[in-house]
Amino acid sequence: MKFAFKPVLMAALLAAGVVSGSHAMAADDGLARIKASDRIRIGVFGDKPPFGYIDSEGKSQGFDVEIAKDFAKDLLGSPDKVEYVITEAANRVEYLKSGKVDIILANFTQTKERARVVDFAAPYMKVSLGVVSPTKAPIKSVNELEGKTLLVNKGTTADAYFSKKYPDISLLKYDQNTETFDALKDGRGAALAHDNALLWAWAKENPGYEVAIGQLGEPEFIAPAVKKGDDALRAWIDQEVAKLKQDGRLKAAYEKTLRPVYGDKVPAEQLLAE
Fold it and tell me: Options 3.40.190.290, 3.40.190.10, 3.10.620.30, 3.60.10.10; which CATH number does 32-124+223-270 get?
């Protein structure tokens, strides 16, 4: 006896991955999906200036946002065809896995652990961990954190680094950057650990604090990320990042969003990936 799949049953089997083939694979082809919808959904921060933040008019701004605009312009013909999805550090992976976003451009540091669950494209920044503390009580070495509380964001490189290498240091963790920095101002921790590039910018805008530890561990790279197995989209981003480096648009994004914050203290070459 021959069986014929009804359309509804076929759709269910495709969605479940029971039936293979080009139609099933289309679910993982983010590039084709973006082109079909004529819209690209990019996860960015809403509270992490100068990389991703909401301005007074409610619009997304920052270094990552400038890169997102270039992605949309080159892929879809207009920088306005981006849907910015505000994310927090702890849910970047989940947003990709659940299909809530096509790409994460939220200051996402490449790590071996993350690479097991998402796919990273070519990096566009390089950073190290830093520690910011009050100028009146600076934390100049990790040893000085003994018996004190260190503030971190959940799911960040800082969280993973201190949890693994310094398990005896007491960590107080928050979801949002705003909460973490407010906790430092309120004295709920002796210091705060985060990417050094962010800390330099924050300390400049907040007198009374300094990045007394400017680099911890080895420099790491920040890169766009896509859903695991989304090879077509990742390959396109690789080519796009190379193009932005070559034609000077990555440097232009730095000049527009980061140089006004850092001035000559942090040269572009120190932060931009080659």
Answer: 3.40.190.10
